[in-house]
Amino acid sequence: MVSKKEDKSAGQELEEKLLMKPKVLGETDNGLLGEAMEYGEEYKEFLKHKTEREILDYSLPIAKENGYTEFVLGTKYKAGDKVFFNNRDKNLILMTFGKRPVIEGVRISVAHVDSPRLDFKPNPLFESTDMAYFKTHYYGGIKKYQWTAIPLSLHGVVTLADGKTVKVRVGEDPEDPQFCITDLLPHLARDQVSKPGNKMIDAEQMNILIGSWPFKDDKVSQKVKLNIMNILFEKYGITETDFLSAELCACPAFQPRDLGFDRSMVAAYGQDDKVCAFAQFKAELDTKEPEFTTMMVFADKEETGSDGPTGMRSVFWKDFLEDVASAWNYPIRHVLRSSMCLSCDVNAAVDPAWSEAFEMNNCSFLGRGPVVSKYTGSGGKYSTNDASAEVMGYLRGILDEAKVQWQVGELGKTDVGGGGTIAVDISVHNLDTVDMGVPVLSMHAPLEVTSKADDYMLYKAVLAYFNYKKPKTI
Asked: Which GO terms describe its cellular component (predicted)?
């Protein structure tokens, strides 16, 4: 016998009308989870490329296969045309021209493709107690103790004396050797473990162990160092002075993996911010004839302040947009004023193990969709872009119309800490900017965790943003 459906009380109806009721993705649409699993496979492939240069090497050929051609200054492109701009092999801009002229606004999305890592010092190689090491200088905000006693891989480029540049990538393939930073055994670590976390490992102790066999020559003083240098010379043609013109770093050698019995999550290095970079990359590829011109940017140097010619404080992206607009003699300031930008960057997911750091009404949760942040910064909203109510409302309309499930969130409790994004560097150009990304567990650790459902929903969010037909009237 079918039971009679109970009528809702007046209070229940009012509650449904007036109050928010967060849901976990997949509660009402199991088909979405299947799509998220497929998306996750593509995303994990993207994550295997761990530096900004490797991301460019991977992404640019795919863009070309999808019809993107190199931007030519002075060309009046038409709707549906796709172009790219490569800045120093570290930034990639992809653009799809819309039906409306660029003076009416460009839909921009920016995500950074650099992640915390261990950069090599300019003179890195040394020998001590019959072992060879590389000295490092950590890049970005890390907990140094997390980087000891884990497998590391080496990445980068070296420009030789003759001007030739060689690529280095060791430790990712199954047959490759790997490397590590050693730690002190617990039996002798009484003093070490009594120190605060930021003092347990000194920056000058973060030396990567790379070899221990000597070069067979009794007349040589540093036999292990010479043996390592000889191996590098035979494989890459590198001499020790070539390190002075090198960009080399160590990254965690972990491969992206499914996490959990249900395979609902991704565990990998560098998801801050490659999870957002891949979402906007795929959304841009899948945008064919948008109403407004779209522009996707891979940024560099975000983890160290966005400085230099490849960081978002540089004018490379603005110069590109000005070059595009110049074909029609559009002033860049008017193009920027009518445009909008998503600063696609991750946020902190509430972790029940550390619940004291989070304010539950205003933080983001794993599995509830991408998180929109009105502002970031720290303390009294210092160093932040604070998006206006109108801009938030415009983005809200885009996401709701596309039936994208999303949430709002701050990084954590006020005055507990803080963090910033490239939104500050973009909005200073009179360009309306909003932060949007996915919640991450263990952010900036060698292994970060995201929800596949969140990752996929972020892609749908950026795709909806790129293809929204209503103009921004702010």
From this structure: cytoplasm
Tell me the per-residue pLDDT of 54-97, one tens digit each, with 9 for 90 and over: 999 999 999 999 999 999 999 999 999 999 999 999 999 999 99
When pLDDT is cut at 50, 70 and 90, the band that residue 468 belongs to is very high
Coil vs helix vs strand at 34? helix
133 has which bridge partners? 126, 209
The Cα 9–Cα 23 span in angstroms is 22
Q: Of 92, 81, 104, 16, nearest to 49 (Cα)?
A: 92
CA distances from 259 to 35, 151, 402 (A): 17, 19, 29
pLDDT digits (tens, 9 = 90+) for 370-395: 999 998 888 888 888 999 999 999 99
Per the CB < 8 A criterion, the answer to whether 136 and 124 are in contact is yes
* pLDDT reading at 202 higher than 90: yes
Q: Which residues of 255-287 are buried (b: 16+ CB within 10 A; e: fewer)?
A: ebebbeeeebbbbbbbbbbbbbbbbbbbbbbeb
Q: Please, which contacts does 66-69 make with residues 24 or more away whose CB atoms are closer than 8 Å? A: 66/285, 68/94
Residue 5 has pLDDT above 80, yes or no: no
If one counts every other C-beta atom within 10 angstroms of the C-beta of residue 233, the result is: 13
Token pair for residue 48?
Answer: 């295997």
- Read off the tokens for 265: 């999550």
Q: Which of 91, 73, 95, 75 is nearest to 83 (CA)?
A: 95
Is the CB of residue 158 less than 8 Å from the CB of residue 246?
yes
Phi-psi region of 149 (alpha: psi -120 to 50; beta: other; left: phi over 0): left
**In 212-353, where do the E strands start and end?**
246-252, 257-259, 265-268, 293-299, 340-344, 347-348
Quick: pLDDT tens for 297-347. 999 999 999 999 999 999 999 999 999 999 999 999 999 999 999 999 999
Identify the structural domains of the chain with CATH numbers, from first to last: 30-115+269-467 (3.40.630.10), 117-252 (2.30.250.10)
